[in-house]
Every structure is written in structure tokens, then in C-alpha cells.
Specification:
Length: 569
Amino acid sequence: MKPDFFDRSALTRKLWTFRKEFLWVGIFSMIANVLMLTPTLYMLQVYGRVMKSGSELTLLMVTLFLVFFYGVMAFAEWLRSRLLVRIGVRLDEELNSQVFNSSFEAYLNRTKHNVNEAFSDLTNIRQFLTANGVIAFFDTPWTPIYIAVIFLLNPFLGWLSILFAVLQVGLTMQSHRITTREIESATDSGNDSHRFVQSKLRNIEPVHAMGMVGNFRDRWFRLHDVSLAKAESSMERQHRQQAVAKFVRYTMQSLTLGAGALMVIEGKMSAGSMIAANVLMSKALQPLDLVVATWKPFVQARTAFRRLEKLLEEFPERQPGAKHQDPLGEIRLEALSATVEGREQPILQDINVVFPAGRVVVVVGPSGSGKSTLARCLVGIWPERDGKVLIDGEPIESWDRIELGPHIGYLPQDIELFDGSIAENIARFGELDSEKVIEAAKRTGIHDMVLRFPHGYDTQIGEAGGILSGGQRQRLGLARAMYGNPEIVVLDEPNANLDDAGERSLLEAVADLRRSNKTVILITHRPSILGAADLLVVMRDGRILHCGPRNDVLAALNPKNTTPKLSKA
């Protein structure tokens, strides 16, 4: 039965699955550390037996045994290191998909997690597992064994070894107490400085055009100066601790040799035992010294472990959703409300409406009325909401996103294209189906535009579609939304950047979707597209004021009608 400790998080449970591998690492460490006694035994045999007997054959045999045991020790250490590397790689392979999905969900839910750190955290943990810090962990328990052997050689040197070991442990604990917080603080400050620069690079064009570089540089200097000061203080303390530890270790080795010489002078031990005790003292304290030297990577790995542990705990691996038939496209909202942190008033308030399948629904309203938030709720990407969003009567959360995704087309207000070819962006970076790609492009009227590019559909558009104009990005995003003929299409301000030709293509695409009996939710500010609506929704202050057939709603909005009667879809 596994300890309760390993039930506390997904990350610790995953580490627990490698317990057999770590057990083998412990076994190889035992073999290597037992064979560390080889030079001690060799010296005792040379000084105690070979020198007295003068036998060259004995010296040869003892030396051959020495070389053999050295070979076994080196092989055990190589197996131990190789196994730790494999543990690190397998841990990465088994967690990288979950870390990827959790990072996306954390970013989608606008949490305080820095998702850019999640992948580097996994790398830090993997690298620490293959570094000297873990080896020191497996070697440290053998310190008492070496001290016990020193006791067998001479009790006085044994007690002296215990004193030195306690002193070394004290230095390690002091290093932990003094440097841990400074290392974590310096790391956090450095990350803040890097995040500041990265966030500004995402909007480099307005920053450069409006001469904001100097202002941001001054702010970055302040963050960077704090980071440098903390890093300098942290490194200074670490180097001071390492210097003290090195001074203590060298002093203890020399004192052990001096004490052994005293015992030899007094006739209480042989010269061979004196040298052997000195070697054993060095081996006994080496793991403790290694702990001090690798303390910074340990603290960084522990911090990375805690961050990753929290991320995976808040956004665990989702179980596959229930299998559904292909959706027909009916959308029902029941008591839907949407909020955002830091805002007292909800963005959406108690919305109840039904959008039948195969209808074109146009949503209008002033800026800030909640139209874009409604669009995000309809496709299931708004994190802080209450109530229900039902597709064909089933909650959207019950659908597997991989299964539901091909049946939904979504064009956000801020067009998000990705580094790759035009064809890959239209095909949503899935398996390229040339016929479907060209069909989506023709339905949105961009086929001829794409063919005018030097490489046609294979043209690389760069990060965020940098080579395209705003209208081209919008039409390409619309083609992506219509790729695969999805049953539900949600378009948020699809004509914001379109010229007259682009808007005509949009109207033709919407008409084509209606003929295909697809459900279209279209959010707009332009009255020119109202003619495409079967149903018209008017929003204000997060509520639906009017919802019904287009002509009825337009009649209700007539200023002469002072008491409009609200209709329902």
C-alpha cells in the first residue's frame, strides 16, 4: 500500500510510478559506495601484508582485485546515471501532454499562472533528476557507514569524524535557511523582468510607432535593477557558503590526517590505517559537500515542482467527454451569467434564449453590452460563468473538445492566425484536405486572392499572419471558421476590417450556410448585414432587450413604439 504522501497531487503520484527505477538507483548506489572502500582495503593490504611479506605475487593479486572492483564500481555508477537520465526522459514524455493541455486551460481561464514557465519547470525537474543533487541524495546515507569503518580503524578518529559530519550538516542547514528565500526571490524577479519584455514585444508596432520604447525601457531598467541586485546578493551568499564549506572540508581532512599521525606516533594505529582513515573521511563528507554545492539547483527544482504541482492540481487531466452524435446546431442558454475578476457588475446577466438549428442569428448592441462575451460563452471558452449552455440539449462541458471542435466554426473579434502556411491555417493545422481547404476559401471569396500569392496555399504567413492585411486576416479567419462545413458558426465582428467586396463575400458565405441548414451567430455593429438575419437579438448592459424575428424586432425598435413588446426566439 502506497503512502498517503503520494496521493497529494498528480505530480507526486507520477513520481511514485518510478519507485522501482529509483530502487534500482539505490541498489547501484549501494554497490558503488561499498566499492568505495576498495582503496582503503587496498592500502591496508599493501601496508599491512605486502610491505611485511615482500611478496610481489600478493601485490599483483591485490592490484588485480583493485582494478576489477574499480571496474564494477564505474559500471554501477554508469548504470545509475543512465537510469536517472531515462527516468527524467520518461517523466517528461508522460507529463508533457498534460502540461501542454493544463497550460492552455490556465491561459484560457486567465489565471495567474505563468504558462510560459510550465514547460521550463518540467525541464528543470527533468534536469535535476539527472544531475549531481540526486546522486548526493543516494550517497548521503552511506556517510554513517564510512564513519563506522573509521571507528573500526580507530575510535578517536571515529568520534572526530562524527564531529566533522555534524559540523557539515550544520553548514548545510544554515545554507538552506539563508539562501533559499533569496534564490527564490531572485528567480521570481528575473522572471518578472523577462515577462515584461515579452509582453511588450507582442505589441511592438504601436510601441515603436508612438515612441513608447524609451518609456518601457525605463520601466524595464527598474525591474532589471531589482533583479540584478537580488541575483548579486543571492550569488554572493551562495559563494560565501560554498567557500566556508570548502574551508571546513579541507581543514577537516588535514586535521584527520594530523590526528591519525598522532595515533601512529603513539603506536595506536598503523600508517596504512592513518591514510585509509583520511580517505574514508573524504568519502564520508563528499556527499554533504555536494549537497551544499548543488543547493541552488535543488531550490530551483523544488520551486518548479511546486508551481507545476499547483498547475496540474488546478487543471487536471480531463477525462474524455461522453460520445455524442454529430450536433444538429440548436443552442439553448439557461440562466446564463458571465463575470470577470475585478468587476462587480456581471458582464452577462440571467440570459435565457433558444437559437433553433439552421437559423442565422444577428446580435447587435452598443459597445460593452456583452456581445463578444456571449460569443465566447456560446463556444465554451469563457471561464467565469454560471448557468447552462446547451448544444442539442446537452451541456457544452459534456462534449469532448476534440470531438466537438470540427463541428464549430469561430471567428474571434481579434483575429488569431498562426505561423504556418495559408492552407495549414485554414485546415486548423490538422491533416490537410486540399478539397476542403479550397472549398472553404471559395465560400469566403479568398480563393483568387490566395492564388495571387507567390506560393499560393503554401505561402507562409508568419507569426500572427504578419504578411497579411487586416482584411486578408479576417477573411482567412472566416475561411478557417467554415472549414469542414461545421454545424455551428459563431462570427464576432466578421466585417470589421472588410471592404465592400469582402462584405459581399461574407453575405454570400452566410447565405450559403443558411442554405446548408447551419446555425450562424453573427455579431456586428454594421446595419448592412441585418438583412441576412432570421432572428435579431438586441443587447444592452449584459441583457437581451429584444429577441425574435428580424422584422418584429426592427418594428419594436421604432421610436414611435414607446412600449415595445419583447418577443422570444
